Amino acid sequence: MMRCPRFAALALAVLGSALLVACVGAPEGVAQLSGDHALVQRSQDGSVEATVQLDSARLSRGVNDFSITLRAADGSAEPVLKSVDAVMAAHGHSASAPNIMNDGQLFHADLDLFMSGRWQIELGVELDASSDRVEFALDVP
Amino acid sequence: MNRIASVLFAAITLWTVHSAACSCSGQGPASALTRPDQRWGLRLSERLVLGQGAFNAHGSYQAFAPNERDRSQEFALLFAYRSRRMELSAIAGFGARSVALSTSDERNAGFADTFLRMRYEAAEEPSPWESSVFPSLAMLATLRLPTASAEGLAPRGLGTTEFALGVVLERSFGPKFRAGLLAEFAGRLPDTTFGYSRVLGPRASAEGTLSYFATPDLVISALVSTRWEGNVRVNQRYESGTAQRLTEVGAAISFQPWKSPLRAGFAQRYTPAIDNLSANVLAALSSEFWVGYVR
Questions:
Q1: Contact residues, chain A, for B243 at CB < 8 Å
Q2: Chain B residues touching A140 at Cβ < 8 A
Q3: What pLDDT band is residue A28 in, cutting at 50, 70 and 90?
Q4: How many CB atoms lie within 10 A of CB A126?
């Protein structure tokens, strides 16, 4: 009867250690985007600067409306927003804005971030004949 | 020093002992289908997964809205072949997953990921009259091949190849009880399933089972398991907050008579909807029913 507590203790220790090791950190390096706080982000090649504004007060799971302003870094031409895509690499999910509407240099897109967690957002932009992309990450609560 | 030497000597002795090992607990995913006196076996299983909600990266649980769902149904065929202490097995499956979240809705049907597994029973536990505390030891090596679709709203596979190594320790406590502990570590190969370079984080799993032999042929088990996966790397950059943690509890009942080639069982697993127990995962209730035939 002495064996049972020993083995149970070993099993509990291993399981407890596994739970302890199984720490999952909160996302870092994600954009702090809210109705009061816009995100300003430079494109990968540096040709465009995007200002992303959330139309609602807070980011939430589900459909989120974004207002996006694009400005060419050298002021030479007017950039155009071509796509708004999101991927969740851990689970293999992806989402795209079905429609992008514009009012001059202000673009509107709605994106269904259907699952909580870290989404990598990519804005596809065109400037003259070249294309570029603006990337940032969002933590959907 | 003497104590360490004794432990080492006992471990080596157990490692090389050659007597008929008993793989009759048959409860968890790491158990063998066949006994040492059998040559091969087949097992057909049906698994139903009903999503209840999801945990976010901060470990907060959020139940699905009434119009949301995440349901899977998988049929799997396992073929096992035994050569002495080693059992080689392959699992192929087919199924469907239906997901509706927010305004998105998708159904995905097709082949499941394919598993190839080697289980080697390295040491059996000592006989009741021997005064040793060591449990039985089995070693596992598993290869998961990405034969299922892994994209979209309802992915059904991993999207990459996974190599896993594990150990199973089992120990009987009297004629009625048996406890088991599985520990497994897995690594994943880089993939470009989504058009960019991705490396899924490593996985570590542990599962504890306690089985009660209601009769020599009928076993009832309780289990608790935890699984952790590290952060995903995309384009050589770690994405913090993508690690996952899953904690499940469950129970199983299996009928495995010594004199009949037939086997049957039912297992139920549940992810408790308690904040911080899990993170970045689906919380689900899963049921699995299986029938088997061994020779």
A1: 23-25
A2: 56
A3: confident
A4: 17
Q: Is pLDDT above 90 for B5? A: no
Q: What CATH number does the domain containing B252 carry?
A: 2.40.160.40
ipTM: 0.78
Chain-chain contact of A11 with B208 (C-beta, under 8 angstroms): yes
Separation CA A129–CA A76 (nearest Å): 13
Q: Are B109 and B86 in contact (CB under 8 A)?
A: no
Provide the CATH number for the domain around residue A61: 2.60.40.1930
Number of domains observed in the structure of chain B: 1
Q: How far is CA A120 from CA A5, A65, B195, B282, in A?
A: 48, 16, 14, 20
Q: Which domain holds residue A99?
A: 39-140
Inter-chain touch A116–B56, beta carbons under 8 Å: yes
What's the gap between Cα A125 and its chain centre?
Answer: 17
Q: Are A134 and B51 in contact (CB under 8 A)?
A: no
Q: Which residues contact B136 (CB under 8 A, 6 or more apart)?
A: B21, B22, B121, B123, B124, B125, B168, B169, B170, B171
pLDDT value at position A36?
A: 87
Domains held by chain A: number: 1
Q: Is B118 left (phi over 0), alpha (psi -120 to 50) or beta?
A: beta
- The two tokens of residue A108 are 């509107």
